[in-house]
Specification:
about 35% helix; 20 strands; alpha/beta; Rossmann fold; globular
Length: about 575
């Protein structure tokens, strides 16, 4: 669309009037909305793009989506035919750009250096027509200035990160005898990234770096932080939506300093580096956000490796709907878990959401008149409605011993973290046969394989038939970002691979990931469970014996439950996820 807006004016700051006129002529807002925005904000000192964002402007191409500030800035950039720049800390050489100009100067100008080479320095700005400063900068840097446009908040946030954490790591390096000019460039690239620091009371040292690390991980939606020692350096990786990615490398000496600080926070022995250790950290990010972190170290060839799992306390509030149960399955599961005795097993690999499902289940049945006891290794989600016991192998407190102890505590419901051996399986089954409801987990690929796994552990078939009430196998798939997912013709080969050995009508179109600023260019945002739920019945009990094969179990249960791959196929049809993602987690 050709816009009749005159931008050929003298150097100036943007005005609210020209911005609203522009978006009105481009049909993003009505004339009534334009006049209302100008009237309500006539005296506002906020940037015009921020004001427009606060009025919930809809995307003209998709009216169901409200444009965020990045989206509004990107639209504006296309109108004035200027390059839009998304400030991605992981892709900017922070050590180089922060040497161009001091923080006080760029803060006064409201611009941010984002790239530099031998001839040009690129600045992100939200005032594309204010050019008075360019001549001075070109003379002082002896480089040509190139302008790109970014959102006002992205510039101000990144400015604080780039310069504040840069100062912290520089001072930390000096205190450790690492010369600022001789240090590795990727240290600065590492620690100059992320979102605003909070609780950085000691911004000049390691405390500021650690505070930034927690904040950055939380803002990136990381569930785990991995600090891994390598030859002469440390690698930091985040697990986001179930996938690990390297976010930076750090000098070996500074890595050790950060590691020591984290061990202190977790109440670990700093001087103990030969044995694995466990600890916990509670961190207040701001007034509304408190996170709990479970820390674990192990000795490796190059030194200690530290992994921190981040728990949002809101996880304790998970209910059955939030963990993925829907429709008829929700009612079936509620009926199953409300029985007075028996055993229910949840299966899947590590990280498939078993603990979250079990805690949501226990929360559903935990009432003042019900005594719920859990044995966990470790206790990950703390809930005041349960009596939670931490397994401790150093004093021979294992799962089997925990069940024995629970039986003297007048329990109604027992949850055992995992059935790992014959002794635990026998104790769990005995508890379920003596008037208690028992929940536990196993590592199997599907629900029906749980039966053959119990037989392999030495559990007699007649005890399986007498105690087992139901089986749930689950996985977590990444959810497609609703803002950028792309509609594509369905691949016949992939669809048949997904549904095999069953047949299901192939949809004409499915969706695939693309990547945008909202999903951090991954194409996905969040995860959701897919599962298969099997209820024990007479036909299934009739074929269970010591020599039973998984094919026998599948044959007798065919048509009596929804296999996980078919459940996943339904999620693909609904546009929740894509075929490759489901195949990734079930194969």
């Amino acid at each position: 669309m050709a816009l009749k807006i005159n931008f050929n004016k003298a150097t100036r700051k943007l005005s609210l009037e020209e911005i609203t006129d522009l978006f009105y002529e481009a049909e993003f807002i009505s004339e009534i909305e334009k006049e209302s925005i100008k009237k309500k904000n006539a005296l506002s000192k906020k940037h015009p793009l921020v004001i427009l964002y606060e009025h919930n402007i809809k995307d003209r191409r998709n009216p169901e989506i409200t444009l965020d500030l990045e989206g509004i800035t990107k639209v504006y950039a296309t109108f004035i035919q200027m390059d839009y720049f998304h400030i991605d800390s992981l892709k900017i050489e922070i050590d180089k750009v922060t040497k161009i100009l001091p923080k006080a100067y760029v803060k006064r100008l409201g611009v941010l250096p984002v790239a530099v080479d031998n001839e040009t320095v690129t600045f992100a700005t939200c005032e594309p027509f204010w050019l008075d400063w360019i001549g001075d900068v070109e003379r002082s840097t002896k480089k040509k200035v190139k302008l790109v446009i970014s959102s006002p908040t992205a510039i101000s946030t990144a400015m604080e990160d780039f310069y504040t954490v840069q100062k912290a790591i520089k001072n930390l390096g000096k205190n450790m005898g690492v010369d600022g000019d001789g240090r590795r460039a990727d240290i600065d690239k590492l620690l100059g990234q992320g979102n605003s620091l909070v609780n950085s009371r000691d911004e000049s040292g390691v405390s500021g770096v650690v505070d930034w690390l927690f904040q950055f991980a939380y803002d990136e939606r990381a569930t785990d932080i991995h600090l891994e020692p390598k030859s002469g350096q440390g690698i930091v990786r985040f697990r986001v939506d179930g996938r690990l990615r390297t976010v930076y490398k750090i000098d070996g000496e500074i890595f050790l300093s950060v590691l020591s600080r984290l061990k202190i926070l977790a109440d670990m022995k700093v001087d103990e580096k030969r044995r694995p250790q466990d600890g916990r950290i509670k961190r207040q990010l701001d007034e509304d956000r408190l996170i709990e972190i479970r820390s674990s170290t192990i000795p490796t060839h190059y030194g200690e490796k530290l992994v921190m799992r981040i728990f949002d306390p809101k996880m304790a509030d998970s209910n059955l709907q939030s963990v993925g149960f829907e429709g008829k399955d929700l009612e079936v599961w509620k009926n199953l878990i409300s029985q007075s005795y028996g055993m229910v097993l949840v299966t899947g690999p590590t990280g498939s959401g078993k603990s979250t499902t079990l805690h949501a289940t226990l929360k559903e049945i935990a009432k003042p008149e019900v005594n719920v006891c859990t044995a966990e290794d470790p206790v990950e989600i703390i809930n005041d409605d349960f009596n939670q016991m931490q397994i401790n192998s150093e004093i021979d407190l294992n799962f089997a011993q925990a069940i024995k102890s629970f039986m003297r505590q007048d329990p109604d419901v027992i949850m055992v973290g995992e059935i790992r051996d014959k002794e635990t399986s026998e104790m769990a089954i005995q508890a379920s046969l003596t008037g208690h409801m028992v929940f536990s987990t196993l590592h199997t690929n599907d629900a029906l394989s749980t039966i053959t796994r119990l037989i392999d552990l030495g559990v007699p078939p007649h005890l399986i038939n007498a105690s087992l009430k139901g089986l749930l196998a689950q996985r977590l798939v990444r959810v497609l970002c609703p803002y950028c997912k792309k509609k594509v013709p369905t691949s016949e080969h992939l669809w048949k691979t997904l549904c095999s050995p069953y047949k299901m009508k192939m949809p004409e179109y499915t969706y695939e990931p693309v990547g945008c600023t909202d999903c951090k260019d991954t194409g996905y945002k969040g995860r959701q469970s897919i599962y298969e739920l099997v209820l024990m019945n007479d036909a299934l009990r009739g074929v269970i014996n010591k020599s039973v094969e998984i094919t026998d179990l599948i044959k007798v249960m065919q048509g009596k439950y929804t296999p996980m791959n078919i459940f996943g196929a339904k999620k693909v049809i609904g546009g929740i996820t894509d075929i490759n993602e489901v195949l990734r987690v079930i194969i």
